[in-house]
Specification:
The chain is mostly helical and about 120 residues long. It contains two helices and two strands, in the order E-E-H-H.
């Protein structure tokens, strides 16, 4: 047995009664006539306002998305630049060491040839 609460009181009901009641309620909603819309100037203005607000909200979400992506791209570009600059510094110091070694070897050759 199923209990049905009506007006704050619990009443015993059989399953068929509950199903029948729900069927009646659902048919009532299904058969109800949808309200007709009248395009008065006020509704036209409200629709235009809603459209503008919707577009503004979309523009704001696009702007926020672009700002976030810009931040991600800038962070990535800065990381790449840092790696590139460190590599340039490493190569410059390696080249300076090589140049120093070549000067020393030339100096040694010149001193050996002078002897």
């Amino acid at each position: 047995m199923i209990n049905v609460i009506v007006g704050g009181r619990r009443l015993p009901a059989k399953g068929g009664v509950v199903r029948g009641t729900w069927l009646f309620v659902m048919l009532g909603f299904a058969c109800a006539k949808a309200p007709t819309r009248v395009d008065t100037p006020l509704f036209v203005e409200l629709d235009a306002l809603e459209a503008r607000l919707t577009v503004s909200a979309v523009d704001l979400s696009n702007a926020e998305r672009l700002k976030r992506r810009h931040g991600e791209v800038v962070a990535f570009a800065c990381g790449v630049t840092d790696v590139h600059l460190r590599e340039m510094q490493r190569l410059a110091s390696a080249q300076a060491q090589k140049r120093t070694l070549l000067r020393l070897r030339r100096g040694q050759r010149e001193t050996n040839q002078a002897l």
